[in-house]
Amino acid sequence: MKRIVFILLIAIMYVAGCSQTSEPKELDISGRYQSDNYGMILLLEHYYKQVSATIEWTGYSTTLEGHFDSKNNQVIMSGNYFGSQNISFNLFYKDNSLAGQFVYNGQYSPISFKFVNLLKHHNQGGLGNESY
Questions:
Q1: Residue 81: per-residue pLDDT
Q2: What is the mean pLDDT of the chain?
Q3: Which is nearest to 26 in space by CA: 41, 47, 42, 9?
Q4: Looking at domain 31-117, does it have CATH number 2.40.128.120?
């Protein structure tokens, strides 16, 4: 009798283990990115659909806010450079890179950022509570 109960328990645990499906992880694009053609540094924090970033360019920095469209892997964000001049980015994420265009002072320019490294103390809500 004990042997039958033991075998049944093992079978139940096996079936329960096999039936668990793991949900796909949300893409986390947080990190430090650098643009070679403009010398910009982008420190990007991705939290669910929201993104916030600090852009460092020509010795000045500004905060950017926006969102991440996970269906198209697209980042759209903007902020005020020097407090009054709007700067905005429309970037697509692919292969650890962000590429698209930015608008500054009414001028459209292509830009690309390459991933450099993860940010310290990052806590991504979409992926759980991992810290880097």
A1: 86
A2: 81
A3: 47
A4: yes
